[in-house]
Amino acid sequence: MTRLTPQTRAAIIELLGNDDLAKAGLWADQIRGDSKYDWAKPLHYVNAPRNENSIVLERDCAKGECVVGAITRFLAVATDSTKPIEERREALKFAIHFIGDLHQPLHAGYADDMGGNRIQVIAFGDKKTNLHALWDTVLIHHKSQGDWRGLAKAIETDMPAKEVAQWEGNLDPLAWGNESRAITRVIYNDLPADAKVGQQYYESNFPTVARRLAAGGVRLAAALNKTFAAQKPALKNRDLSVSPVPPSTPNPAEKPSPKAVPIPIVVPVLVPAPVTVPVP
């Protein structure tokens, strides 16, 4: 059974139609080349000074213009029935994506190297990449070898119940950002001096990648449930009955049924298909 409530599933179906959550979660990266959305570019990350351990909203997210503030803002818009449907639809897509972004540690990094984008890395012998992309996609590709269904199942199976409960109990985006911030500091400390990473680096760090993917998916579901439960009456009073969501992971190459709403863990930018983890 999905962690999404029937009310949340119905609301998502109404807003997204035939688009599943995983596909919707990629949209905020797909429109980054459209000048119409230039205003959203700073909302994918939050930077803090290198000598600071924690994110301070007044200093690092002025007027809510960062990924932390964006999550709260867009969740509110998505459930505001007084807003136009297209505005709410885009807000939901932004919220899904930004929750994924904030759980990738280097989206809570340092401005001077653009969250690791300026740190060149050689991965697995000859692959030229950068530190940000390494954690965005390269380590995940190395694990999955194209088998997204297998990766999703492995992450689902390995989620400790105690951690899942803790993730569900902490729905504060600032706390998520500070978790990522703490991991980011470890990432920089652990990067080899020659910036060459291989199997040993992967084996040491992929468990952290998997844990952040899992936490992002669990918290996405919990945040959507909480937000849609508190929405304005116009949608809340409608018929919200839906068919049960199948527990299996949809093949990324196939379009799920409009009523099959998987909980996505969206890996941004470079992954050819999203990693979607069904949470039982």
Strand ordering within the main sheet: 2-1-3
Count of domains: 1
Q: What is the H/E order?
A: HHHHHEEHHHHEHHEE
User: What is the first-to-last residue Cα distance?
Assistant: 5 Å
Oligomeric state, counting identical vs distinct chains: single chain
CATH architect. name: Orthogonal Bundle
Structural class: mainly alpha
Topology-level CATH name: P1 Nuclease
The level 1 CATH classification is: Mainly Alpha
Uncertain ranges: 235-280
* Spatial shape: globular
Number of DSSP E strands: 5
Mean pLDDT: 84
Main beta sheet: 3 strands, mixed
Radius of gyration: 18 Å
Give the helix tally.
11
Describe this structure in words.
The chain has 280 residues and is mainly α. The protein has a single domain, classed as Orthogonal Bundle (P1 Nuclease). The chain is built from eleven helices and five strands, in the order αααααββααααβααββ. The strands form two sheets. Strands 2-1-3 form a three-stranded mixed sheet. A two-stranded antiparallel ribbon has the order 4-5. Helix 4 (67-78) runs antiparallel to helix 9.
